[in-house]
Design goal:
Layout (H helix, E strand, L loop, with lengths): L1 E7 L4 H7 L8 E8 L4 H11 L5 E5 L6 H11 L4 E6 L2 E2 L2 H5 L9 E9 L2 E2 L7 E2 L4 H4 L5 H4 L6 E3 H7 L10 H11 L3 E12 L11 H16 L2
Length: 227
């Protein structure tokens, strides 16, 4: 069984679309939504919408924690051994769940191979990324986005064990965590057929301060190369 952990800030329609296709899927034991202190209007709409959904557990932060700490809190609140960490502006369907391997390794994060329609990583399908090969891997075309998008399956205990907050990482919280994950001796596996819909829009946390985030991502990329 898997916990679907969704972080949200001031989104309603996108949030509701993000999990609609898997709401009644038996492989998802719970949907944990952590709202990062959205406006009262948005939060009220979300609360009303999920009120009659027994599988959904909704939490609201009393202050805005930011993307990184909000992901960590969502995973912390999960009850399952394995968690899909999903941003509320993205969408997963049953095909994503169909692709999850039957045997899972706690030290491996399972990454989608296609963040449709823009980020196509299918050339890396079946690729295992670890600290021994990541320096070579990250030089390949489309390799950096693999390590800078989340929406993947992770072991809850191992995720929380590795997590280390860095307040400088705003829209680059994922590549920062993924650097920590590799540094700890863990790995990533790009799963064939694991696909989801990845929205690129003006409300994106990364695009909110694109120049700053690009500079930070570049710095983390150098740390990854040095592993």
């Amino acid at each position: 069984m898997i916990s679907l952990c969704i972080t949200n800030y001031n989104r309603y329609e996108m949030l509701m679309e993000s999990f609609a296709q898997v709401l009644n899927d038996d492989r998802i034991s719970e949907i944990v939504i952590v709202d990062d202190c959205s406006t009262d209007e948005i939060y009220g709409k979300v609360l009303a919408a999920v009120f009659d959904m027994p599988k959904v557990r909704l939490y609201r932060n009393q202050e805005n924690l930011g993307m990184s700490l909000n992901k960590k809190r969502a995973v912390d609140l999960a009850k399952s051994e394995w968690c899909i960490i999903l941003d509320s502006d993205n969408v997963i369907g049953p095909d994503y769940l169909d692709a999850i391997p039957s045997c899972l390794n706690e030290q491996t994060i399972y990454c989608p191979s296609f963040a449709k329609p823009q980020f196509d990583y299918r050339s890396f399908s079946n690729y295992l990324i670890d600290r021994d090969n990541v320096g070579t891997f990250i030089k390949k075309p489309m390799a950096e986005p693999v390590l800078n998008t989340c929406n993947y399956l992770a072991n809850r205990v191992e995720y929380l064990k590795v997590y280390l907050h860095n307040p400088e990482m705003k829209g680059t919280d994922t590549i920062w965590f993924n650097y920590l994950w590799l540094r700890a001796g863990n790995s990533f596996y790009v799963v064939p057929g694991m696909e989801y819909f990845h929205r690129v829009h003006d409300g994106s946390g990364f695009l909110a301060d694109c120049d700053y985030n690009m500079a930070k991502a570049k710095g983390i990329k150098e740390l990854i190369k040095a592993l």
